[in-house]
Amino acid sequence: MNPTDPSASSTLPFLPFALPEIGEDDIAEVVDTLRSGWITTGPKAKRFEADFLAWLGDAGDDIEGLHCIAVNSATAGLHLALEALGIGPGDEVITTTHTFTATAEVVRYLGADVKLVDIDPATLNIDPALVEAAITPATRAIIPVHYAGLAADMPAILAIAQRHGLKVVEDAAHALPSTSAGARVGTLGSAATVFSFYANKTITTGEGGMLVTRDAELARRARVMRLHGMSRDAFDRFTAKVPSWYYEIVAPGFKYNLTDIAAALGIHQLKKAHAFAQRRAAIAALYHQALQGLPVILPPSGPAGDLHAWHLYVLRLAPQSPLSRNALIEHLFEQRIGCSVHYTPLHLHPYWRDRYSLRAVQFPHSQQAYDAMLSLPIYTSMTDADVRRVCAALRAVLG
Ligand SMILES: *Cc1c(COP(=O)(O)O)cnc(C)c1O
Which residues, other chains included, contact 47 with Cβ-Cβ below 8 Å and sequence gap of 6+? Predict the structure, then answer.
């Protein structure tokens, strides 16, 4: 079948850009929760936190002293981490323009300011040299993003943070599982690491996230602020031996707790995380192989021996590509292939552009990548034939 023949393509099933893989085990655990009488934060959320900690250590990484705090989104987790670190008005936090707005918006929730910097064009991750150049006396923290699932240069970022007395909060929304210099993201030397379980992430609870920290005080504060600033959560009160109605409000907290319905999904998704990661890596390898020789820049695989989570497969068109990025996306869509762009850099969004008077020339590498990039379909239930179909559609117009 000729994949460029529109009459043929119209009969092909639509290939989505991302798809969660929900198994009978996930469904059974959710049903068990629904039948249990306890559907909000309770025993399943506690179990998911304990399982997540064990999972972080399952390859022998040091999990001593780590706390895992389940939240209803990664955005919530990032907000809680920065709040617990005392970030507020007058403070500056450095992050990359090449990310989703959640990474930066949490800084603004707290009235602090965002300093956006450009990426390293080889990795599409935040450039540590630019981080160091952006530091001012007001800088308090750095938020690296492990873009697409490739760990940012954490040894360099942690060294800069140490030299300047800054906190590092990792946006690990794409990085389950990823490693940096051989160590699992989540166990590195940062103040906090935040994972996302949004519907299209590498494991999902529909909506959800996990805040991981070695800082006992940060963990204590985040647990209290996760649920209205209450001194005891509802499940503690429910299961306590003493009368259960009493609690104290110690701060104006948030409503960021993860429900047991969502945690039930997470428990089984986590068990499959390594198998999911292997399938994603196999799909990335197939793409790498099949797209050789086209006028494209393949995504970097990262240092040998390190894990890349392959949340995204971000292809860039080379300057000699006969087609623009937008035209290519339209072509793929006509072939009933979904793809996306991750992300329109923050400096191009009206809010960020206007708030900080940003211009594209300040971020040449992110801008250049943005103009040329698209995210190809990658998800665990995608078959080898699906991958070949995408590659054939690309080859038809680029080859
Ligand atoms: C998905 C995502 C987030 C937000 O995650 P939620 O769980 O949806 O809040 C933050 N940062 C990046 C880079 C993301 O991709």
Answer: 263, 267
